Amino acid sequence: MPFADSGALSGFDDLAGLGLDSMGVVRLIVDIEDAYGVQVPDEILDERTFATVGSLWEALSPLVTRGP
């Protein structure tokens, strides 16, 4: 994310404000799928999921902890 500094992110940080655009979302999804060996389901791919760091973590954490 282009506007994220090296500091810690909070759950309230706005992803668009940090520079995450539509192409960044696609890259992020691919990176998560590759890194964790999961498939991100289409039904969670909406603007609410990618609104904040916290909303993204809330949507993806069950996939990451559960695995494929």
TrEMBL record:
Keyword Phosphoprotein: yes
Coiled-coil region list: none
One of the Pfam families matching this protein, by short name: PP-binding
Superkingdom as given in the UniProt entry: Bacteria
Transmembrane region(s): none
Keyword annotations from UniProtKB, A to Z: Phosphopantetheine, Phosphoprotein
Statement: the UniProt record of this protein carries the keyword Transcription regulation: no
Name this polypeptide is given: Phosphopantetheine-binding protein
Species per Swiss-Prot/TrEMBL record: Nonomuraea ferruginea
